[in-house]
Write a structure and sequence with these properties.
Layout lengths: L4 E4 L5 E4 L2 E3 L7 H12 L5 E2 H9 L7 H18 L9 E4 L2 E4 L6 E2 H13 L5 H14 L12 H27 L3 H15 L3 H15 L5 H30 L9 E3 L1 H15 L5 E11 L9 H16 L5 E6 L2 E8 L2 H18 L4 E9 L6
Parallel strand pairs: 1-7, 8-10
Antiparallel strand pairs: 1-2, 2-3, 4-6, 5-6, 9-11, 9-12, 10-11
Helix pairs in contact: 1-3, 2-3, 4-5, 4-6, 5-6, 6-7, 7-8, 8-9, 11-12
Length: 380
Amino acid sequence: MSEKTSIRLFNGFEITKGDVPILQNLSNTRKTKLFVAYLLVNRNRPITHQELFELLWSGEDYANPATALRTLLYRFRSMIENEGAKALNGAIISRRGTYQWNKDLDVSIDALDFQAFAEAGINPTISASRRKEYLIKAIEMYKGSLLPDFSSEPWLIAQSAAYRDMYIEAVMAYVEILKEENQYAAIVQVCEKALELAGTSEILELEIQIAKLTIADPGASAKDSVVAYYKEVRELSVKLQDETDRMQRELQQEIIEQQAFMCDYRTFKELYNLQRRMQSRSKATIFLGLIYIRSEDTGNDDPLYEEKAITDVVNCCQRMLRVGDAICRKGDNEIALLFPAESYEDAVGVLERLKAASKERVDEDIVMVYRLRPLKSARE
Protein backbone atom coordinates (compact mmCIF):
# COMPACT_ATOMS: atom_id res chain seq x y z
CA MET A 1 0.00 0.00 0.00
CA SER A 2 1.46 3.36 -1.04
CA GLU A 3 2.12 6.01 1.60
CA LYS A 4 -0.27 8.95 1.74
CA THR A 5 0.94 12.33 0.46
CA SER A 6 0.03 15.24 2.73
CA ILE A 7 0.36 19.01 2.57
CA ARG A 8 0.76 21.10 5.71
CA LEU A 9 -0.29 24.75 5.56
CA PHE A 10 -0.60 25.49 9.30
CA ASN A 11 2.56 26.83 10.96
CA GLY A 12 4.60 26.37 7.79
CA PHE A 13 4.44 24.84 4.33
CA GLU A 14 5.55 21.24 3.99
CA ILE A 15 4.74 18.35 1.66
CA THR A 16 5.29 14.85 3.05
CA LYS A 17 5.00 11.28 1.80
CA GLY A 18 4.14 9.23 4.83
CA ASP A 19 6.28 10.88 7.51
CA VAL A 20 9.10 11.89 5.14
CA PRO A 21 9.30 15.49 3.82
CA ILE A 22 9.51 15.74 0.03
CA LEU A 23 9.95 18.59 -2.46
CA GLN A 24 12.12 20.39 0.09
CA ASN A 25 13.76 22.41 -2.70
CA LEU A 26 10.45 24.26 -3.00
CA SER A 27 11.47 26.36 0.02
CA ASN A 28 14.63 27.48 -1.81
CA THR A 29 12.68 29.19 -4.59
CA ARG A 30 10.33 31.75 -3.03
CA LYS A 31 8.41 32.55 -6.21
CA THR A 32 7.72 28.89 -7.00
CA LYS A 33 6.68 28.27 -3.39
CA LEU A 34 4.39 31.33 -3.44
CA PHE A 35 2.96 30.24 -6.81
CA VAL A 36 2.02 26.79 -5.43
CA ALA A 37 0.78 28.15 -2.07
CA TYR A 38 -1.48 30.72 -3.76
CA LEU A 39 -3.07 28.08 -5.97
CA LEU A 40 -3.61 25.83 -2.92
CA VAL A 41 -5.32 28.51 -0.83
CA ASN A 42 -7.46 29.59 -3.82
CA ARG A 43 -8.03 26.04 -5.08
CA ASN A 44 -11.78 26.59 -5.63
CA ARG A 45 -11.31 28.89 -8.61
CA PRO A 46 -9.10 29.22 -11.70
CA ILE A 47 -6.46 31.94 -11.36
CA THR A 48 -5.70 34.11 -14.39
CA HIS A 49 -2.18 34.69 -15.65
CA GLN A 50 -2.62 38.41 -14.94
CA GLU A 51 -3.54 37.81 -11.29
CA LEU A 52 -0.57 35.50 -10.76
CA PHE A 53 1.81 37.85 -12.51
CA GLU A 54 0.75 40.77 -10.31
CA LEU A 55 1.21 38.59 -7.23
CA LEU A 56 4.66 37.31 -8.17
CA TRP A 57 6.23 40.15 -10.14
CA SER A 58 4.40 43.28 -8.99
CA GLY A 59 6.21 46.32 -10.34
CA GLU A 60 8.67 44.28 -12.41
CA ASP A 61 8.79 44.63 -16.16
CA TYR A 62 8.51 41.40 -18.15
CA ALA A 63 7.99 41.20 -21.89
CA ASN A 64 6.20 37.86 -21.66
CA PRO A 65 4.45 37.11 -18.32
CA ALA A 66 3.03 33.82 -19.62
CA THR A 67 6.54 32.49 -20.23
CA ALA A 68 7.62 33.47 -16.70
CA LEU A 69 4.64 31.57 -15.25
CA ARG A 70 5.34 28.50 -17.39
CA THR A 71 8.88 28.50 -16.00
CA LEU A 72 7.52 28.27 -12.42
CA LEU A 73 5.16 25.46 -13.41
CA TYR A 74 8.04 23.63 -15.10
CA ARG A 75 10.17 23.93 -11.95
CA PHE A 76 7.40 22.51 -9.76
CA ARG A 77 6.72 19.62 -12.14
CA SER A 78 10.46 18.90 -12.36
CA MET A 79 10.64 18.63 -8.55
CA ILE A 80 7.73 16.18 -8.61
CA GLU A 81 9.36 14.06 -11.32
CA ASN A 82 12.83 14.11 -9.72
CA GLU A 83 11.48 12.87 -6.38
CA GLY A 84 9.00 10.41 -7.83
CA ALA A 85 6.05 12.08 -6.09
CA LYS A 86 3.46 10.44 -8.33
CA ALA A 87 0.54 11.52 -6.13
CA LEU A 88 1.24 15.11 -7.19
CA ASN A 89 1.20 14.43 -10.93
CA GLY A 90 -1.42 16.74 -12.42
CA ALA A 91 -1.51 18.88 -9.24
CA ILE A 92 -1.77 22.09 -11.26
CA ILE A 93 -4.23 22.24 -14.14
CA SER A 94 -3.33 24.60 -16.96
CA ARG A 95 -6.18 25.90 -19.10
CA ARG A 96 -6.30 28.76 -21.55
CA GLY A 97 -5.13 31.81 -19.63
CA THR A 98 -5.53 30.23 -16.17
CA TYR A 99 -3.99 27.86 -13.63
CA GLN A 100 -5.84 25.96 -10.89
CA TRP A 101 -4.97 23.45 -8.18
CA ASN A 102 -6.48 20.05 -8.98
CA LYS A 103 -9.20 19.57 -6.34
CA ASP A 104 -9.62 15.89 -7.26
CA LEU A 105 -6.03 15.04 -6.34
CA ASP A 106 -5.73 12.24 -3.73
CA VAL A 107 -3.71 14.39 -1.33
CA SER A 108 -4.47 15.30 2.29
CA ILE A 109 -4.41 19.05 3.09
CA ASP A 110 -4.40 19.85 6.82
CA ALA A 111 -6.45 23.06 6.50
CA LEU A 112 -9.23 21.24 4.64
CA ASP A 113 -9.26 18.33 7.11
CA PHE A 114 -9.30 20.77 10.04
CA GLN A 115 -12.26 22.65 8.58
CA ALA A 116 -14.24 19.45 7.97
CA PHE A 117 -13.72 18.19 11.54
CA ALA A 118 -14.39 21.61 13.10
CA GLU A 119 -17.66 22.08 11.20
CA ALA A 120 -18.79 18.57 12.16
CA GLY A 121 -17.88 19.15 15.81
CA ILE A 122 -19.73 22.46 16.01
CA ASN A 123 -22.86 20.89 14.51
CA PRO A 124 -25.43 20.68 17.36
CA THR A 125 -27.56 18.01 15.65
CA ILE A 126 -25.16 15.12 16.29
CA SER A 127 -24.43 13.40 19.60
CA ALA A 128 -22.07 14.92 22.15
CA SER A 129 -19.74 11.93 21.95
CA ARG A 130 -19.37 12.27 18.16
CA ARG A 131 -18.98 16.02 18.45
CA LYS A 132 -16.25 15.57 21.05
CA GLU A 133 -14.42 13.14 18.76
CA TYR A 134 -14.51 15.57 15.83
CA LEU A 135 -13.53 18.58 17.96
CA ILE A 136 -10.50 16.80 19.43
CA LYS A 137 -9.29 15.97 15.91
CA ALA A 138 -9.84 19.56 14.71
CA ILE A 139 -8.06 21.08 17.73
CA GLU A 140 -5.10 18.73 17.30
CA MET A 141 -4.80 19.63 13.61
CA TYR A 142 -4.53 23.38 14.15
CA LYS A 143 -0.82 24.05 14.61
CA GLY A 144 -0.75 27.83 14.19
CA SER A 145 -1.38 30.50 11.59
CA LEU A 146 -1.77 29.68 7.91
CA LEU A 147 1.45 29.85 5.84
CA PRO A 148 3.39 32.12 8.25
CA ASP A 149 6.12 32.72 5.65
CA PHE A 150 3.56 34.75 3.68
CA SER A 151 1.67 36.20 6.67
CA SER A 152 2.02 39.80 5.43
CA GLU A 153 0.45 39.01 2.05
CA PRO A 154 -2.98 40.74 1.86
CA TRP A 155 -4.57 37.78 0.05
CA LEU A 156 -3.73 35.47 2.98
CA ILE A 157 -4.76 37.58 5.97
CA ALA A 158 -8.53 37.06 5.66
CA GLN A 159 -8.22 33.29 5.13
CA SER A 160 -5.81 32.91 8.04
CA ALA A 161 -8.15 34.93 10.30
CA ALA A 162 -11.10 32.75 9.27
CA TYR A 163 -9.24 29.58 10.28
CA ARG A 164 -8.21 31.18 13.58
CA ASP A 165 -11.84 32.12 14.35
CA MET A 166 -12.97 28.59 13.48
CA TYR A 167 -10.30 27.17 15.80
CA ILE A 168 -11.48 29.39 18.70
CA GLU A 169 -15.08 28.34 18.01
CA ALA A 170 -14.07 24.66 18.05
CA VAL A 171 -12.21 25.13 21.36
CA MET A 172 -15.24 26.85 22.88
CA ALA A 173 -17.53 24.02 21.74
CA TYR A 174 -15.12 21.49 23.23
CA VAL A 175 -14.95 23.44 26.52
CA GLU A 176 -18.76 23.27 26.83
CA ILE A 177 -18.58 19.47 26.56
CA LEU A 178 -15.77 19.35 29.15
CA LYS A 179 -17.88 21.45 31.53
CA GLU A 180 -20.68 18.89 31.35
CA GLU A 181 -18.09 16.23 32.24
CA ASN A 182 -16.62 18.38 35.07
CA GLN A 183 -13.16 18.16 33.48
CA TYR A 184 -11.90 21.56 34.62
CA ALA A 185 -8.21 20.68 34.51
CA ALA A 186 -8.66 19.71 30.85
CA ILE A 187 -10.39 23.06 30.23
CA VAL A 188 -7.36 24.94 31.58
CA GLN A 189 -5.02 22.85 29.44
CA VAL A 190 -6.92 23.23 26.16
CA CYS A 191 -7.56 26.97 26.64
CA GLU A 192 -3.93 27.73 27.52
CA LYS A 193 -2.81 25.85 24.42
CA ALA A 194 -5.34 27.78 22.32
CA LEU A 195 -4.06 31.12 23.63
CA GLU A 196 -0.53 30.03 22.78
CA LEU A 197 -1.48 29.19 19.18
CA ALA A 198 -4.15 31.80 18.41
CA GLY A 199 -3.23 34.76 20.57
CA THR A 200 -5.42 36.88 22.84
CA SER A 201 -9.01 35.83 23.52
CA GLU A 202 -10.82 37.31 26.52
CA ILE A 203 -13.37 34.49 26.47
CA LEU A 204 -10.70 31.79 26.74
CA GLU A 205 -8.88 33.72 29.47
CA LEU A 206 -12.11 33.89 31.47
CA GLU A 207 -12.71 30.17 30.93
CA ILE A 208 -9.30 29.51 32.46
CA GLN A 209 -10.07 31.72 35.49
CA ILE A 210 -13.43 30.05 36.11
CA ALA A 211 -11.96 26.55 35.73
CA LYS A 212 -9.08 27.31 38.13
CA LEU A 213 -11.46 28.82 40.73
CA THR A 214 -13.70 25.77 40.43
CA ILE A 215 -10.75 23.42 40.93
CA ALA A 216 -9.55 25.39 43.98
CA ASP A 217 -12.98 25.73 45.62
CA PRO A 218 -16.20 24.81 43.74
CA GLY A 219 -18.25 26.97 46.13
CA ALA A 220 -16.02 30.03 46.13
CA SER A 221 -18.01 33.27 46.00
CA ALA A 222 -15.27 34.92 43.96
CA LYS A 223 -16.20 32.64 41.09
CA ASP A 224 -19.73 34.09 40.86
CA SER A 225 -18.56 37.56 39.85
CA VAL A 226 -16.19 36.12 37.23
CA VAL A 227 -18.98 33.93 35.84
CA ALA A 228 -21.36 36.89 35.65
CA TYR A 229 -18.75 38.97 33.81
CA TYR A 230 -17.98 36.01 31.52
CA LYS A 231 -21.65 35.64 30.55
CA GLU A 232 -21.91 39.33 29.73
CA VAL A 233 -18.71 39.32 27.66
CA ARG A 234 -19.77 36.20 25.76
CA GLU A 235 -23.23 37.58 25.03
CA LEU A 236 -21.75 40.85 23.77
CA SER A 237 -19.12 38.96 21.72
CA VAL A 238 -21.80 36.96 19.91
CA LYS A 239 -23.86 40.09 19.31
CA LEU A 240 -20.85 42.03 18.03
CA GLN A 241 -19.80 39.17 15.76
CA ASP A 242 -23.26 39.07 14.19
CA GLU A 243 -23.29 42.86 13.82
CA THR A 244 -19.82 42.87 12.22
CA ASP A 245 -20.90 40.22 9.70
CA ARG A 246 -24.09 42.17 8.94
CA MET A 247 -22.15 45.43 8.54
CA GLN A 248 -19.61 43.83 6.22
CA ARG A 249 -22.39 42.45 4.01
CA GLU A 250 -24.03 45.88 3.99
CA LEU A 251 -20.85 47.78 3.13
CA GLN A 252 -19.29 45.54 0.54
CA GLN A 253 -20.27 45.41 -3.09
CA GLU A 254 -19.67 42.36 -5.16
CA ILE A 255 -16.73 42.84 -7.52
CA ILE A 256 -18.03 41.18 -10.65
CA GLU A 257 -15.07 42.04 -12.86
CA GLN A 258 -11.45 41.88 -11.77
CA GLN A 259 -10.48 45.36 -12.91
CA ALA A 260 -9.66 48.81 -11.57
CA PHE A 261 -12.31 51.00 -9.92
CA MET A 262 -13.80 53.63 -12.20
CA CYS A 263 -15.18 56.70 -10.44
CA ASP A 264 -15.98 60.40 -10.83
CA TYR A 265 -13.51 63.13 -9.85
CA ARG A 266 -15.19 63.86 -6.50
CA THR A 267 -14.87 60.25 -5.40
CA PHE A 268 -11.33 60.16 -6.81
CA LYS A 269 -10.42 63.13 -4.59
CA GLU A 270 -11.78 61.34 -1.51
CA LEU A 271 -9.80 58.22 -2.41
CA TYR A 272 -6.68 60.34 -2.90
CA ASN A 273 -6.88 61.81 0.60
CA LEU A 274 -7.76 58.44 2.14
CA GLN A 275 -4.66 56.96 0.50
CA ARG A 276 -2.58 59.82 1.92
CA ARG A 277 -3.75 58.90 5.41
CA MET A 278 -3.11 55.20 4.84
CA GLN A 279 0.33 55.87 3.36
CA SER A 280 1.46 57.50 6.60
CA ARG A 281 0.97 54.12 8.32
CA SER A 282 2.29 51.74 5.68
CA LYS A 283 5.37 51.16 3.56
CA ALA A 284 3.45 51.21 0.28
CA THR A 285 3.92 54.18 -2.03
CA ILE A 286 0.84 55.34 -3.92
CA PHE A 287 1.31 57.23 -7.18
CA LEU A 288 -0.91 59.76 -8.91
CA GLY A 289 -0.73 59.44 -12.66
CA LEU A 290 -2.19 61.90 -15.16
CA ILE A 291 -2.48 60.88 -18.81
CA TYR A 292 -3.24 63.33 -21.63
CA ILE A 293 -4.62 61.83 -24.86
CA ARG A 294 -5.10 63.43 -28.25
CA SER A 295 -5.95 61.93 -31.60
CA GLU A 296 -3.74 62.87 -34.55
CA ASP A 297 -6.13 61.46 -37.16
CA THR A 298 -7.31 64.75 -38.69
CA GLY A 299 -8.67 63.01 -41.78
CA ASN A 300 -11.43 61.15 -39.95
CA ASP A 301 -14.89 62.59 -40.59
CA ASP A 302 -16.46 61.07 -37.47
CA PRO A 303 -16.96 63.93 -34.93
CA LEU A 304 -16.91 61.38 -32.12
CA TYR A 305 -13.70 59.70 -33.28
CA GLU A 306 -11.49 61.28 -30.61
CA GLU A 307 -14.04 60.58 -27.86
CA LYS A 308 -14.22 56.92 -28.91
CA ALA A 309 -10.43 56.67 -28.91
CA ILE A 310 -10.19 58.13 -25.39
CA THR A 311 -12.97 55.81 -24.16
CA ASP A 312 -11.03 52.85 -25.56
CA VAL A 313 -7.91 54.00 -23.69
CA VAL A 314 -9.90 54.30 -20.44
CA ASN A 315 -11.25 50.77 -20.91
CA CYS A 316 -7.75 49.47 -21.64
CA CYS A 317 -6.41 51.10 -18.43
CA GLN A 318 -9.28 49.69 -16.41
CA ARG A 319 -8.55 46.15 -17.59
CA MET A 320 -4.78 46.34 -17.14
CA LEU A 321 -4.70 47.94 -13.70
CA ARG A 322 -5.57 45.99 -10.57
CA VAL A 323 -8.82 45.77 -8.61
CA GLY A 324 -7.61 48.15 -5.88
CA ASP A 325 -6.45 50.85 -8.33
CA ALA A 326 -8.64 53.84 -9.21
CA ILE A 327 -9.33 55.65 -12.48
CA CYS A 328 -11.28 58.79 -13.28
CA ARG A 329 -11.95 60.82 -16.39
CA LYS A 330 -10.73 64.24 -15.23
CA GLY A 331 -11.36 66.21 -18.40
CA ASP A 332 -12.17 65.75 -22.05
CA ASN A 333 -8.66 64.51 -22.80
CA GLU A 334 -7.31 63.55 -19.36
CA ILE A 335 -7.35 60.37 -17.29
CA ALA A 336 -6.23 60.32 -13.64
CA LEU A 337 -4.95 57.14 -11.95
CA LEU A 338 -4.13 56.05 -8.39
CA PHE A 339 -2.03 52.91 -7.96
CA PRO A 340 0.73 51.51 -5.70
CA ALA A 341 4.29 50.77 -6.81
CA GLU A 342 7.51 49.87 -5.03
CA SER A 343 9.52 52.65 -6.70
CA TYR A 344 9.24 55.55 -9.12
CA GLU A 345 10.84 53.39 -11.84
CA ASP A 346 8.23 50.67 -11.28
CA ALA A 347 5.43 53.25 -11.52
CA VAL A 348 6.88 54.51 -14.81
CA GLY A 349 6.94 50.90 -16.03
CA VAL A 350 3.21 50.56 -15.29
CA LEU A 351 2.35 53.63 -17.36
CA GLU A 352 4.68 52.63 -20.17
CA ARG A 353 2.89 49.28 -20.41
CA LEU A 354 -0.48 51.07 -20.40
CA LYS A 355 0.74 53.41 -23.12
CA ALA A 356 2.02 50.57 -25.33
CA ALA A 357 -1.13 48.48 -24.87
CA SER A 358 -3.43 51.44 -25.53
CA LYS A 359 -1.64 52.43 -28.73
CA GLU A 360 -1.69 48.85 -29.96
CA ARG A 361 -5.38 48.45 -29.16
CA VAL A 362 -6.70 51.87 -30.16
CA ASP A 363 -4.80 53.61 -32.90
CA GLU A 364 -1.16 54.32 -33.75
CA ASP A 365 -2.14 57.95 -34.42
CA ILE A 366 -3.04 58.87 -30.83
CA VAL A 367 -0.63 60.93 -28.75
CA MET A 368 -0.30 59.95 -25.08
CA VAL A 369 1.72 61.96 -22.56
CA TYR A 370 1.80 61.21 -18.84
CA ARG A 371 3.19 62.60 -15.60
CA LEU A 372 3.66 60.87 -12.24
CA ARG A 373 3.74 62.11 -8.66
CA PRO A 374 4.14 60.01 -5.50
CA LEU A 375 1.49 60.93 -2.92
CA LYS A 376 2.67 62.87 0.10
CA SER A 377 1.58 61.26 3.35
CA ALA A 378 -0.87 63.05 5.66
CA ARG A 379 2.08 63.94 7.93
CA GLU A 380 3.90 65.92 5.23
